[in-house]
Design a protein that fits this description.
The chain has about 250 residues and is α+β, with helices and mostly antiparallel strands. It is built from three helices and 14 strands. About 25% of the residues lie in helices and about 40% in strands. α2 packs antiparallel against α3.
């Protein structure tokens, strides 16, 4: 090969390398700066979907049971591991869980079944304050809507205190409960950690019920239409005793 031909081939290879490198750079850069694409699917099979904010915080997780997420507080797992809550879990602006929709249902080898549906919304940095529930234990059913009070105790702080007591007392549940109740009382201004203030629904005895309770979760007024159709209004004392009843019969 002559010197002239060799120089010509070298110049060609240089130009080829420059052009190829330029095209590769355009392709790589374009992959990062191209506008978001809107995809459309007719059908998709998936075990979990994470809806994320631009900063990486969870906003919504949809999953099956094995891949379900555990509780998250400000972007970090706490309390217990995932794997037991199939459904949808919601998160607030700080990446903390603040409600969800879960559901179960199965028949065992003994022929008995269990079924449930639970939708709840959480108090800020606490737990459930607004619930919609269906629970069925082989025909023993409870269905209703409830509103709860929660003490102003940060749920992560509560879990850390509970875990420290478990580590200290091991399996001494009485000591754990005693110290945990004392810890809650010192921070909750004399109210329980949680108190159901209202329940409306159907109880396992097939009564349609409206319960209104005090700040300690003690029912004080109850409206009932029982399974036989009889109606009554009950007034209750703080210790749960019926002090007055108004029957629907004339």
């Amino acid at each position: 090969m002559s010197q002239q031909n060799l120089e010509r081939d070298v110049r060609f290879l240089k130009r080829y390398a420059v052009v190829t490198t330029g095209l590769m750079l355009v392709t790589v850069v374009g992959a990062f700066v191209r506008p978001p694409r809107h995809e459309k699917f007719t059908e998709i099979d998936v075990e979990r979907i994470n809806v994320m904010e631009p900063d990486g915080k969870y906003r919504l997780v949809i999953s099956n049971r094995p891949r379900s997420i555990g509780p998250i507080y400000k972007g970090k797992p706490f309390a217990y591991e995932g794997g037991g809550r199939p459904g949808l879990i919601f998160f607030n602006d700080e990446g903390t869980e603040n409600g969800g929709l879960t559901f179960t249902g199965a028949r065992g080898k003994d022929g008995r079944y269990q079924s449930s549906l639970h939708m709840s919304f959480d108090q800020f940095n606490q737990d459930q304050v607004l619930n919609l529930d269906y629970a069925d234990e082989n025909g023993r059913r409870r269905t209703g809507f409830s509103i709860n009070d929660r003490a102003d105790i940060d749920i992560n702080e509560w879990v850390m205190q509970r875990d420290s007591l478990v580590a200290r007392y091991k399996k001494d549940t009485a000591a754990i409960t005693r110290d945990m109740n004392a810890w809650v009382a010192s921070r909750a201004k004399g109210v329980p950690l949680v108190a159901q203030r209202m329940f409306v629904g159907k109880d396992p005895a097939k009564n349609a019920v409206l319960n209104l309770s005090d700040v300690n979760g003690k029912p004080r007024l109850r409206l009932v239409v029982d399974s036989l159709g009889a109606a009554r209004i009950e007034f209750l004392s703080a210790d749960g005793k019926v002090t007055n009843t108004i029957n629907g019969e004339r």
